[in-house]
Amino acid sequence: MRMSFTVAVAGASGYAGGEMLRLLLQHPEARIGAVTAHANAGTHLGEHQPHLRGLADRVLAPTTPDTLAGHDVVVLALPHGASGAVAAELAQRDAGTVVVDLGADHRLSDAADWLAYYGSEHAGTWPYGLPELLHAGERTAAAQRATLAGTTRIAVPGCNVTAVTLGLQPGVAAGIVEPTDLVAVLANGYSGAGKSLKPHLLASEGLGMAQPYAVGGSHRHIPEIAQNLRTAGAPDVTLSFTPTLVPMARGILATATARLVPGTDPAAVRSAWESAYADEPFVHLLPEGQWPTTAATLGANTALVQVAVDERAGRVVTVTAIDNLVKGTAGGALQSLNLALGLPETLGLPLDGVAP
Ligand SMILES: NC(=O)C1=CN([C@@H]2O[C@H](COP(=O)(O)OP(=O)(O)OC[C@H]3O[C@@H](n4cnc5c(N)ncnc54)[C@H](OP(=O)(O)O)[C@@H]3O)[C@@H](O)[C@H]2O)C=CC1
Ligand SMILES: CC(=O)N[C@@H](CCC(=O)OP(=O)(O)O)C(=O)O
Q: Which UniProt keywords apply (predicted)?
């Protein structure tokens, strides 16, 4: 077992990099080394992450192999398309370094999916950082944890993907929902879009409305969710996916529904979700009748899940809430990193959130 580790964070001026640093500051074995940025290299971290007082005086280095080399762990919190080249150069320098990619570059196993949704050359496929991902035939997740144990490469899932996968996969793995008839509609907080300025993200525009985006099957997380549900045992997946920006800083509330396989006893539904998550430290199926809210997950590495059967519609309805920056990114990454390093999976990860 590796104990203390040094860690560099690339993209430290951004939302995901900042959240990674917040969690690493609370992790008993992490020693924070280089913090890097792009246009903001040379400035103090405190200008970009004023909530991280312990690191306020750190100067952001440029994101280069030289600044990132020499650490046990490198976390890449860069725009998608940027991490592939950096990771390839790091592999030449320090073969044993554990590289954690918070971006999308190494998530998809099918290069054609990558090209279709991202339009650039595929960087490759790494072990996928969702420890709770069910594999076909499993009622509780063990195979994905085995994949992550001892790995030196982790592709962290997209935040929407985490929410929708956790909501739907118990029914898919149990074979009681039709994977070719899935619908997901999400309410998304603004931090999911990163810090870069876009007119529709201005407070004067966004504070007073809910606005859909990437409508009509174009969102880049669709192939990633389908990939996960195929791992869970679905031969074919058809998913209608619609995210909606709502005026909150953090959080995702994903409502995902699926047609119940005809003849399925509705009691089998609750039992599939219960058995999938009974032993999970971070994924909590709420008591019947209680519904997840994003507020109850803020700052915590938890996913709150509920499931119900709409008998008139013949559909299973799942609702999942996560904090996009914690379980949806940095927390999920740290959970997978703990497994990779042979540390207890839950080490340093917050179970309790902040409220109100
Ligand atoms: N926000 C979220 O909820 C989630 C984010 N992610 C992923 O994490 C990654 C980072 O996202 P997020 O933090 O939101 O984005 P931000 O825009 O907030 O931050 C981007 C970071 O990358 C740096 N950067 C920008 N351009 C380049 C470049 N060409 N080369 C190297 N570094 C660059 C920026 O530095 P500088 O400030 O100097 O420009 C900044 O540190 C993305 O891949 C995103 O998809 C994944 C799941 C959820
Ligand atoms: C509000 C918002 O725009 N959210 C982003 C989520 C980004 C994310 O999960 O990251 P990756 O780009 O790394 O997949 C979106 O839906 O595209």
A: Amino-acid biosynthesis, Arginine biosynthesis, Cytoplasm, NADP, Oxidoreductase
